[in-house]
Specification:
Layout: H1 2-10, H2 14-42, E1 65-66, E2 72-84, H3 92-102, H4 108-115, E3 123-129, H5 131-140, E4 145-154, H6 162-165, E5 167-168, E6 174-176, H7 177-181, H8 183-187, E7 192-193, H9 198-215, E8 219-226, E9 232-238, H10 251-254, H11 270-280, E10 289-290, E11 295-297, E12 300-302, E13 311-312, H12 314-319, H13 323-330, H14 335-344, H15 370-376, H16 386-397, E14 401-403, E15 417-419, H17 423-439, E16 453-463, E17 466-480, E18 487-494, H18 501-504, H19 506-517, H20 545-552
Parallel strand pairs: 1-7
Antiparallel strand pairs: 1-2, 2-3, 2-4, 5-6, 8-9, 8-18, 10-13, 11-12, 14-15, 16-17, 17-18
Length: 553
């Protein structure tokens, strides 16, 4: 009996056998799974990769772009981008439904087909997520979603420097503007410092924005230049765009009007006609210019928009902006000399300003004749870039030397420099330009406490067979203080809906910008100034302005 009991105790029951088998299978599965997890963790080759045609971690640490005072204008930041590993998703349809609610603007038709592709392990969903978007993705709790760290180009001032900086493409390379033309340096991590002053840039942007709203204009642009160094202190083209959202920018807003556009500059060119006349000695302060009747030449008639019908001095030709008077002066200059002067002023070829070049000027390519110099003398028949106008005007009101505007601090002096007029001519021109702001067409450009000198311009837009009288560009270029210029500013406004031209539209914008800029630059109004030019009656309209300006500071 005892032996029989012992035998029964040594034999396993069916239930015990099944338990041990189940336990062995469970241990085997656990070990296999653990080994697989360890293998996946150690073998990076099994990590899902970006599919061909998609950039993965393509952004590099680009150099920082600073303004002249060390303010960051463009820099690279770390961001997270969202991808999907379709193979790790439990339900493709459920994942797509949830993601659509979170990112409705994505191109889901293409994304869906890729997620549902049986062989795909990597699908980009959205690049450069905001912190809020990252948090929302985490809350979804969807298996198969992951993040990749990337570098993104960030522009803290948004559209304030749009056309100057340009922007980068999805691969992180420069696409427009300075980012494009300085891509080699920036992509190596080299920093750049511009001549721009953020305070003046903001002021100019605000001024142009106000002009567009007030006048209902199509576009406006302007540039402020340090008269001594030719450094660009501010440059704005509107309408503009946000470089942080470059893909949303249209062709119209991408156009850089202060550098790439070319325009007929209208009566601002009379400054150069008089300057050359004085320099060659064909006119002097007492010269008599007959502007009583229109000039008929070939099939053209040159006339004044507000005819004075009088014999003028050169100063009155400039002050009253007489097309007839400017044509008469140009008629005293040989055609070849006239053309050579425009070449020295940098008006006949593109100007390289450090990141790209201005567009090619437009002018007659055939041999110039009498009619060409007469019409060009008042800014018709030739179109140049605003930066070229600034270069020429700067020479006439400073040291007589044409130098190209500079955008980079510490840049080596360029070889491009021409002495076009003498110091004697610049002194004559400064006094005449001052008179234009006192009794001439630019009275609305005056700034209390300072002598201003400048010239207005209004040009119709050329179309096939002539000009569009309803589409004009109004402009004003001026210097302050004109007796020893420190600041030169060009304002241009396109498609004004009101009548008035440069004197009513652009000149007041110059004054608005300058009033807010002179304190920033440390320019103080002068209480005494014997330099001021008196009009024919010996009256000085600036009397008392300096005292009032100082009292208001």
């Amino acid at each position: 009996m005892a032996k029989k009991r012992a035998k029964k105790q040594g034999k396993l029951t069916d239930a015990q056998v099944r338990f041990f088998v189940f336990k062995a299978v469970l241990v085997f599965c656990f070990c296999s799974l653990s080994f697989k997890i360890l293998e996946l963790g150690l073998d990076q080759s099994r990590e899902p990769k970006a599919a061909s045609g998609y950039a993965q971690n393509t952004f590099v640490e680009r150099g920082i772009i600073y303004d002249r005072n060390g303010v960051e204008l463009a820099l690279s930041l770390d961001v997270l981008s969202l991808y999907a590993d379709p193979k790790m998703m439990i339900s493709h349809d459920d994942a797509i439904t949830s993601l659509k609610l979170l990112f409705p603007d994505l191109k889901w038709e293409k994304i869906e087909s890729r997620i549902k592709s049986p062989k795909r392990r990597f699908v980009w969903l959205k690049r450069k997520l905001t912190p809020k978007e990252v948090k929302s993705v985490y809350h979804l709790g969807i298996p198969g979603l992951g993040f990749k760290k990337e570098k993104v180009r960030f522009y803290p001032h948004e559209n304030l420097y749009a056309h100057m900086l340009g922007g980068v493409n999805n691969a992180g390379n420069g696409a427009f503007g300075l980012e494009y033309y300085q891509n080699q340096k920036l992509s190596k991590g080299e920093d750049l410092t511009l001549t721009i002053d953020s305070r003046l840039q903001s002021r100019l942007h605000k001024t142009l924005e106000g002009v567009m709203q007030q006048e209902g204009t199509f576009a406006a642009w302007g540039v402020a230049l340090d008269a001594k160094t030719r450094e660009v202190l501010a440059a704005v083209s509107m309408p503009d765009y946000d470089p942080n959202a470059l893909n949303d920018a249209t062709e119209n807003v991408l156009r850089n009007r202060f550098a790439q556009g070319v325009y007929e500059m209208g009566s601002t060119f009379k400054v150069f006609t008089l300057a050359q006349g004085y320099e060659l000695g064909v006119i002097n302060d007492e010269s008599k210019i007959d502007a009583r009747k229109p000039i008929k030449i070939s099939r053209f008639t040159i006339k004044d928009s507000h005819a004075k019908k009088m014999i003028m001095t050169p100063g009155e030709v400039l002050k009253y902006s007489s097309n007839i008077g400017a044509s008469r002066i140009s008629d005293l200059i040989e055609v070849d000399a006239f053309k050579d002067f425009y070449g020295q002023l940098s008006f006949l070829s593109p100007m390289d300003y450090g990141f790209g070049a201005t567009s090619s000027p437009l002018y007659p390519q055939r041999k110039w004749g009498r009619i060409h110099k007469m019409t060009m003398s008042f800014g018709h028949g030739i179109a140049i870039a605003p930066l070229q106008l600034l270069a020429g005007f700067s020479a006439v009101v400073t040291d007589g030397e044409v130098r190209q505007p500079k955008f980079f601090k510490g840049a080596p002096e360029e070889e491009f420099a021409y002495q076009v007029v003498s110091g004697e001519t610049t002194e004559k021109m400064k006094r005449l330009l001052n008179e234009v702001t006192i009794t001439g067409t630019a009275r609305l450009s005056k700034v209390a406490g300072f002598n201003v000198g400048g010239k207005t311009g209004t040009a119709e837009i050329s179309v096939a067979g002539g000009y569009n009288e309803d589409h004009r560009v109004s402009s004003y270029i001026g210097a302050i203080p004109i007796e020893d210029p420190e600041l030169i500013v060009l304002i241009m406004v396109d498609e004004s809906q009101k009548i008035g031209g440069g004197g009513r539209i652009a000149a007041p914008a110059f004054a608005d910008f300058v009033k807010g800029s002179v304190p920033i630059l440390g320019m103080r109004p002068k209480l005494e100034n014997e330099w001021r030019l008196l009009d024919r009656n010996g009256k000085n309209e600036y009397a008392g302005h300096a005292e009032r300006a100082v009292a208001g500071l």
